[in-house]
Specification:
Elements (H helix, E strand, L loop, with lengths): L7 E10 L3 E8 L5 E6 L4 E6 L2 E3 L13 E9 L3 E8 L3 E8 L8 E8 L16 H4 L10 E7 L17 H17 L4 E5 L11 H8 L4 E8 L10 E5 L1 H13 L9 H4 L9 H30 L11 E3 L11 E8 L3 H7 L2 H21 L6 H7 L6 E4 L6 H7 L4 H7 L12 E4 L13 E6 L6 H7 L4 H7 L12 E5 L2
Parallel strand pairs: 1-5, 10-11, 10-12, 12-15, 13-14
Antiparallel strand pairs: 1-2, 2-9, 3-4, 4-7, 6-7, 8-9, 13-15, 16-17, 18-19
Helix pairs in contact: 2-8, 4-6, 6-8
Bound molecules: zinc ion.
Length: 497
């Protein structure tokens, strides 16, 4: 598979392990012509880079957790470089080149997909449980609410870089995601699933698919921002925009034969390809409208909870065109947790304490949303119907006192002492406390206004009401409108529910 011309220096070689493939990134001085092939007995991958010099020390490449045993390189034909990867087992290579970006120059990427049973050990982290396993998790017959946590970027994609040139978004996103996972794991009725569990890249299209495979009830993509000035700050929450959703639905119907898309919101596990185009589009529009409405509502609860620990850039969810949010059947949000270009926020975002507080707030928002709108058949729906909040587990952190914990969880001191057989008010760092549910879980009310719409040419108030599926009178009321006259550029508040 020869590619384009020009001579190149090989400046670095990096290896990232994903659950089912290994990514090898070769940093180049310019575009190169190259070829990739495999050899058996023993298993090797050979990468020939024409007209190039090896400047990297390949013996020192970090190969931990990867099926690459060693890397060697040699000069070939006096002007080409041959790179040989000694492998633990057979792989199927797939390669492509990437143009320079802010962070890196030209790159050659070789993805080595595992073949057969000889795949290497995965990173020692918690694997998402399969749907079959999950049914035994809850002691009652009520199912758990599955929360898919997607740490943005990863592996060769560092995401935004901090003000100091060192802090990387992929690390911050993974740390906060893990904190969300840990927090949710202790809450009966919830089951967190990590979409990315380590420092590797997962393709954008694959992220919502993994959420769907795990039958997620909500998808949260965790990111951090960066901007050209250090002043920008605050949390932003995004849901998919309605306009993008409409274009996306048309595309999905056109490709429905090859798509694994499900219509979860309206028809359970029905696949799109079982329907005629017209009907498929209608069902998809309905499902997507449901998904966006739920996303915006969940986003409001999450922002409301985050507001007590962080600054908010916008206090209502924003709607945008983001790949990972395009599920028609799973409410999906992207949370920009702050600006790494802002030294104050960057320091907070890299502190374990702040990551935990942020994660706790995200989880609180998720719980408030699901307590308000529990999916049928879940333990949370049962708890709500029976007027019970869930018992929760809490691990005592540095600086906690019993009264602080009671206050934070909205329970009184006597209840908290009784639930944990405590005589006094002394708690130890690292001690696990049961936070009694008892009465209904306190629900923090979400702000009633959840999105904004800027009027473009040709739009009418009734058209906008229809698009967002709110009544004309609610829309007038939310915007203090006496008549239905609107002007181009005017910003309307769209009430959610
Ligand atoms: Zn990002």
């Amino acid at each position: 598979m020869p590619a384009t011309v020009l001579a190149g220096d090989i400046r670095d070689l990096r290896v990232w392990r994903s659950p089912d493939y290994t990514r090898v990134v070769i940093d180049l001085g310019s575009r190169v012509e190259y070829s990739v092939f495999v050899l058996d007995n023993p298993h090797r991958v050979v990468i020939d880079v024409n007209d190039s010099r090896m400047l990297a020390d390949v013996a020192r490449v970090d190969l931990v957790d990867s099926p690459v045993r060693s890397v060697r390189s040699a000069v070939r034909n006096q002007r080409d470089t041959r790179i040989v990867l000694d492998m633990d087992g057979p792989v199927n290579p797939s390669s492509f080149t990437l143009p320079p970006n802010d962070e890196f120059g030209d790159r050659l990427v070789v993805d080595l997909y595992d073949l057969g049973a000889e795949s290497p050990a995965r990173p020692a982290e918690i694997a998402p449980s399969s749907p079959a396993e999950r049914q035994t998790v809850s002691s009652s017959s009520q199912r758990n609410i599955v929360v898919a946590i997607d740490a943005g970027h990863g592996g060769d994609d560092p995401g935004a870089i901090g003000f100091d040139g060192r802090i990387r978004e992929k690390d911050v996103a993974l740390a906060i995601s893990r904190a969300v996972f840990e927090r949710l794991r202790g809450i009966p009725g919830y089951e967190p699933v990590m979409i990315r569990q380590g420092d590797y890249y997962v393709r954008l299209q694959q992220r919502p698919q993994l959420a769907r495979q795990n039958r997620a009830d909500i998808f949260l993509s965790i990111h951090a921002d960066s901007f050209s000035t250090s002043r920008a700050e605050g949390v932003t929450v995004y849901a998919l925009s309605q306009t993008i959703a409409e274009d996306e639905n048309i595309r999905r119907v056109a490709e429905k034969e090859n798509s694994a898309d499900l219509l979860g919101g309206v028809s359970g596990d029905t696949s799109l390809k079982n329907f005629e185009d017209d009907l498929a589009l209608t069902l998809l529009d309905l499902s997507m409208a449901w998904s966006i409405e739920q996303s915006v509502a969940a986003g409001s609860y999450i922002l409301n909870a985050i507001g007590s620990v962080a600054r908010l850039r916008r206090d209502v969810p924003q709607q945008g065109n983001l790949w990972v949010l395009r599920s028609p059947d799973i409410p999906s949000l992207l949370i920009e947790t702050g600006y790494l270009s802002n030294p104050r926020e960057a320091r907070l975002l890299t502190s374990a304490d702040y990551q935990r507080r942020l994660a706790d707030a995200i989880v609180q928002g998720v719980m408030n949303y699901f307590y308000e709108r529990p999916p049928e058949g879940t333990l949370v729906a049962w708890q709500k119907a029976n007027n019970q909040g869930p018992d929760r587990q809490y691990v005592v952190q540095r600086g906690d006192s019993l009264s602080l914990i009671a206050q934070r969880h909205n329970v009184n001191m006597a209840q908290l002492r009784a639930a944990n057989n405590l005589r006094g008010d002394i708690v130890q760092l690292g001690q696990t406390l049961t936070i009694p549910g008892g009465g209904p879980m306190p629900v923090v009310s979400a702000p009633p206004t959840v999105s904004e719409h800027t009027i473009s040419r040709g739009e009418t108030l009734s058209g906008i009401a229809e698009r967002y599926r709110v009544s004309l009178s609610r829309l007038r009321e939310a915007n203090d409108l006496r008549s239905d006259t609107i002007r181009i550029g005017q910003v309307l508040q769209i009430p959610a529910f």
